[in-house]
Amino acid sequence: MLSLLVVAIGLIPASGLASASAPLSAAIGVLHNPYLLIIIAIGGITATAGVVLTGILGTSRVLYAMGRDNEIPGTFGKIDKFGTPVYSILLSMAISLLFVYFVGFSTIIEASNVSVLIAYSIIDFSAIMLWRRVKNDNPKHLREQKYFFIIPLIGMATIFITISYLGLPAIEISLSVLALVSGVYALKYIMGSKGYIKIVKKKIPRVSLVRVFGKSRKRIKDEEH
């Protein structure tokens, strides 16, 4: 990757790469070789398709787990006979198509990066809270880890610095989604605590059914029931 970057900068200035929508194609274009352009275009399309497929695969599994745990409608927690969460994949694909249609591709990538970084910052904050609770329960065990909180604090600081360099539209999209999801969960919690709705707590399985096949899946189902 580094050698490819050096070659691209050697072909055209860095400012030209920064302003191009397809930097590598722009760099190869100065060679005036149509065959190289075709190869680069095929490689770019293949790489983009792979990234999109990976994103749909990951988000569909998250939606499946949320449907299985009744955090979203249970339909999205169902799988077919091949162990594929069909409904969650369709929902993930629909969300992706909506974003592609209404938002630029680069903004989608940046919003995805912001969302992942926000998730990591939440994990760092949770680590600090867990460390405080465990420290109070068993201070002797954590006597040598009394400065553990510095690590997640550094992680959160670097995350916020990285987010500040991303585009403002991407940050707005990610924060809007975070606010919407947080509002839904807060409303659900309030209504459940006041008895307006019944919150069903399900036992989370040790192994996801989308990862096992045949007799192993039947055995896990029998253990759950």
Into which percentage range does the β-strand content fall? under 5%
Backbone structural class: mainly alpha
Give the termini distance in whole angstroms: 51 Å
Q: What is the mean predicted local confidence, pLDDT?
A: 76
The arrangement of helices and strands along the chain is HHHHHHHHH
Structure description:
By secondary structure, the protein is mainly alpha-helical. The chain contains 9 helices and no strands. It has helices at residues 2-11, 14-19, 23-29, 34-68, 86-102, 105-137, 150-164, 168-193, 215-224. Helix 6 (105-137) packs across helix 8 (168-193). The longest helix is centred in the N-terminal third of the chain and has 35 residues, at 34-68. It is extended, with a radius of gyration of 23 Å. The termini are far apart.
Task: Spell out the key features of this protein.
225 residues; mainly alpha
Secondary structure layout:
Blueprint: H1 2-11, H2 14-19, H3 23-29, H4 34-68, H5 86-102, H6 105-137, H7 150-164, H8 168-193, H9 215-224
Helix pairs in contact: 3-4, 4-5, 6-7, 6-8
